[in-house]
Amino acid sequence: MKPPTAAAGGGKGGAVDPSVPRFRCQECRRAFVVVGVDSYAERLPAHAASGNHASSVQGSVMGASRMDNSYVVLSRQNRSQGPGIPPRPPSAAAPHTEPHQPTRAIEGSYIVLPPPAASIYKAPASEGGGAQLTPPSVNSSSPSPGNNSGFHSSVTVLKRAFEIASSQTQVEQPLCLECMRVLSDKMDKEIEDVNADIKVYETSLQRLEQEPYNILSETDFQKEKQKIEEEEKKLKATIEEAEKLYSEVSSEMKDLEIKSKQFEELEERYWHEFNSFQFQLTSHQEERDAVFAKIEVSQVHLELLKRTNVLNDAFYISHDGVIGTINNFRLGRLSNVEVEWDEINAAWGQAALLLHTMAQYFAPKFQYRIKIHPMGSYPRVTDIHNNTYELFGPVNLFWSTRFDKAMTWFLTCLQEFAEFAISMDKENNVPREKSLKLPYKIDGDKVGSHTIVLSFNKNENWTKALKYMLCNLKWVLYWFIGNTSFAPPSGPGHTQSLKNKS
């Protein structure tokens, strides 16, 4: 077999004989040309070729002269593995020789080829992987390459040969030389494996045959049989019990599967409810956090309001140099500082309103004997005898009896409220150092060492007495804030500064 690119005949130019059949390898799918078909026609069974084609093929094979020029003798070193020739298995039989054929001294393997095909071995091995062999010289004349009389018989013989080879080797034929060599190696390996298995089986069989064995007597056989039957009965009982247990376990498994499905449904429903609950819980927590945030803001505002000194903001007591002020209204006058009576009256109105508010808050606990009537810039004071006096001006510096009495009774009312505050601290067990103590002592119409009476008094002294009175009033105001759920302000220091500047 040779690739189609190589010359199949002795024609000029190396052209392939069109009468030579061409096939394709069933393994590697390479096309090749099969030559020397006529030499193998007689080896096929009688039914492989029919009619004149079979007889013509057989006649061409039987000719001795044809046989003499249609084989190639291989050297001894190339018998088993020549280039392009598959290796022969070790157990292969010697080639069969027909009895009527003349004997030749051929010690090696040979391939029968027709004379026109001998030239294919001159082709290089690179062309399709063919065998590179040099045939002996041929003296006889060869048939003409153009003769197509044996074409159909050659095709029939090849097809039949390939069918027989496929049925015997269980491999699709035809195959090229390389694929045939691979197949041969594979079959050699399989033969080696089979031979190794045969040896193992033979060794095992010999070992079994060599083992001694005893033949039981009839009595021992019956006993052994009875023993085996009893064991069989026990095993059958065990099997029945196992089957019974199996049926019970199967029923329990079915019940468990039903319960498992129910539990899965319950679990799924539980997770749905759990997710819904988690969603609601998250929503409620967000609402709660929002409410807590609002509460916190409200508490901050409440603390701010608690710390807010309403009365201190409503009645801001301070000073303007030597002159005391309340809500920026000056209370008093100097020789070099002329203050209008409207401003003085407004200041007295604010002071009267502050003292009246504190006294009314603790009524009736505080014995409010002296009544103060805040009436804007025209306040009045009623004494213990129900006599009412005007606490506003203008008045004459030398004749201001009613105005002086109104200021004196106002100072007395302030002293009584301060004494009430001190008694409240004692009831509440307030330490003495933290109890209310007026910065300036009140004694009748005097505050400190200055009288509050305007008649026959200097403006400077009268102004100082009014300033001291406002300072005492601010201390009473701080005490009032601290005992009526208001946070104590940081104002006493400011009042102390007012005291120090006096």
TrEMBL record:
Domain of life: Eukaryota
Domain Atg6 BARA: 305-480
Coiled coil ranges: 191-269
Atg6/beclin coiled-coil domain mapped to chain residues: 174-302
PANTHER family named among the record's database cross-references: BECLIN 1, BECLIN-1
InterPro entries: Atg6/Beclin, Atg6/Beclin_C_sf, Atg6/beclin_CC, Atg6_BARA
Protein name (record): Beclin 1 protein
Organism: Urochloa decumbens
UniProt keyword Nucleotide-binding, yes or no: no
Keywords annotated in UniProt: Coiled coil
Top-level taxonomy: Eukaryota, Viridiplantae, Streptophyta, Embryophyta, Tracheophyta
GO biological process: autophagy
